[in-house]
Amino acid sequence: MKIGCSSSSSSPLLAVVSCSGSSDLKKSGSLGSRIFPASQRSSPLDKLLRCKTMSSNHLRHVESMSLLPSGAGKISQLNAVVLGESIASEENDLVFPSKEFSSQALVSSPQQYMEMHTRSMEDPAGFWSDIASEFYWKQKWGDRVVSENLDVRKGPIHIEWFKGGITNICYNCLDRNVDAGLGDKTAMFWEGNERDVDASLTYSQLLQQVCQLANYLKDVGVKKGDAVVIYLPMLMELPIAMLACARIGAVHSVVFAGFSADSLAQRIIDCKPKLILTCNAVKRGPKTINLKAIVDAALDISSKDGVSVDVCLTYDNSSATTREDTKWQNGRDVWWQDVVPKYPTSCEVEWVDAEDPLFLLYTSGSTGKPKGVLHTTGGYMVYTATTFKYAFDYKPTDVYWCTADCGWITGHSYVTYGPMLNGATVVVFEGTPNYPDSGRCWEIVDKFKVSIFYTAPTLVRSLMRDDDKFVTNHSRKSLRVLGSVGEPINPSAWRWFFNLVGDSRCPISDTWWQTETGGFMITPLPGAWPQKPGSATFPFFGVQPVVVDEKGNEIEGECSGYLCVKGSWPGAFRTLFGDHERYETTYFKPFAGYYFSGDGCSRDKDGYYWLTGRVDDVINVSGHRIGTAEVESALASHPQCAEAAVVGVEHEVKGQGIYAFVTLVEGVPYSEELRKSLVLMVRNQIGAFAAPDRIHWAPGLPKTRSGKIMRRILRKIASRQLEELGDISTLADPSVVDQLIALADV
Length: 746
Hints:
This protein has 746 residues and is of the alpha/beta class. It has 21 helices and 36 strands. A seven-stranded mixed sheet has the order 10-9-22-21-23-24-25, sandwiched between helices. Strands 12-11-13-16-17 form a five-stranded parallel sheet, sandwiched between helices. Strands 27-26-28-30-31 form a five-stranded antiparallel sheet. Helix 2 crosses helix 3 (124-132) and helix 6 packs across helix 7 (237-247). The longest helix has 17 residues, at 203-219. The protein is globular, with a radius of gyration of 25 Å. Keywords: ATP-binding, Ligase, Nucleotide-binding. Belongs to the ATP-dependent AMP-binding enzyme family. It comes from Brassica rapa subsp. trilocularis. It catalyses: acetate + ATP + CoA = acetyl-CoA + AMP + diphosphate.
């Protein structure tokens, strides 16, 4: 099916002063970062206006600083600011990058950030045009860099950047880098599921393989605007397939290779692809998953709905299964290795308009029809490249590893496109981070000398459960920047990540963004800002976040409310495929004139942003609106709690009650005393109104392979609606659902 898409004010931040040369700041020994509680420093930020509308239930981000698991206690040489019994406020403690790090950073001071951010707000056309000019354009865009309407009261929502500019993202990822002399530089290190299986490709080799696949796609009739579904695991062939589609102007739709046949069929029926790419099987840890069988079932379902796919190109992943054990449909199924290598290693580029579609990415579809988020080419290219460069302080010598799967937006923007647009060396990992043991991540870091490591808080918390020796047995000396993505990272996990994994010397880029935003929206810049554990810090260039109340009124200064964005940015999605009305209704009608993120947010007295989770994850207990992330953070600060997930359930008195699933540190037994201790931790840190009504012991939590907790499953278990659990095929370990059900009354 051919795919097409429907057709500022100044920065809210106040000026800041640099602390790098302040005489009253003490260096923290030999550590790579300097950490100071509020009581020992002059404020590094000018006073922000106090909140005009202060929420009565504003929750400070506090966490116990005593008796935490090894590596998750106080940051080295940090004197806690005591607010009460063993409680410190994260809002008052800053972690500074070292002077050496800042001096070499792309953005090295708050002043430099402010100058760049201010210009991006006051002159977005000039700011982004200057950056866009660093890429190759066959034809430059017209006089109007951006055209937008984000206010449903003024007509249909539309966003366009660099309209009329002609380019190709594959050319900018590969040809441009080869032409610049990077042909012999490693583009990808690939690590297989098993330790002794690996491979690599230089930029020249990657370009050749992309061209071979692109030529094959053209030969079987794939043309500009045609949809191609990719259902592959994390083999090198996955980013190769994405780039090959982009090269010829086809629109790829990557589906996480773990979705069920029904879920895959939904996406096939919606976008009507010309072809599907898959492999026969994959091993994840000790488990073999027969992907081709899932594809066969999905194609059967879609054909009954009137959507047939003529070609199924199948990669022979011989480490997982054999050709003989792979079911085959002659005339439709084709082995990748039998045809693709025969094609020429050069392929002409299909030049496309900046607003031509690049890819479709469907949201998980927890309820109802999945949403087909549509991203276009030019703005997305410029935005992902720029966010990658600055948020990770990228240097040409870096080796970068993002643990996300390309089936999610993180894998699109920060495994494939963002890094390669910068000519980076990327690690691609087929397996799972705790196979064969919990030291696998750090083993890979040492093996490939990874310097930038980007992962999810869920993985961090999962690894925290195990013995520290899995981390400390490995050097990790190559690391210089860490990153977090997917959900708010609770401060105890932040500290463990910083102290133990990063040896208290690696800044953490705790990024907030969404599938819909295309790239980072609120993120630390590692060399510019002091960080607060658990805070996403400040907005990226060109982004103006606002916090609004329930009536859509902007709130200034210290406050909490709904997170919206004023004005567009180049990486914004342009529509929901085939359903522009749903696009407007979901994202632009809740608060007219703004993009509504669906997330709750607090902004502290220093202007730092703290994400409190999805608004639909806010629980209303006896009139108190409580963010689930707040309760989860309090529970996770308990020395015997490894991880927690909180959902709301109906309560006959309070309206809603708080139901907490708690995973304990390895070896800690369940007990009534521990249950009471966990509840008391929440009462002490937040208040009695936030105390969980129920603690449900959880050996594990239902997570996707990327680490996202499937909260809809937890809600169903909590409310005992077990017949409505829905699709659990995307879980990394579906067996945890049965374990949770078995422990429901313990």
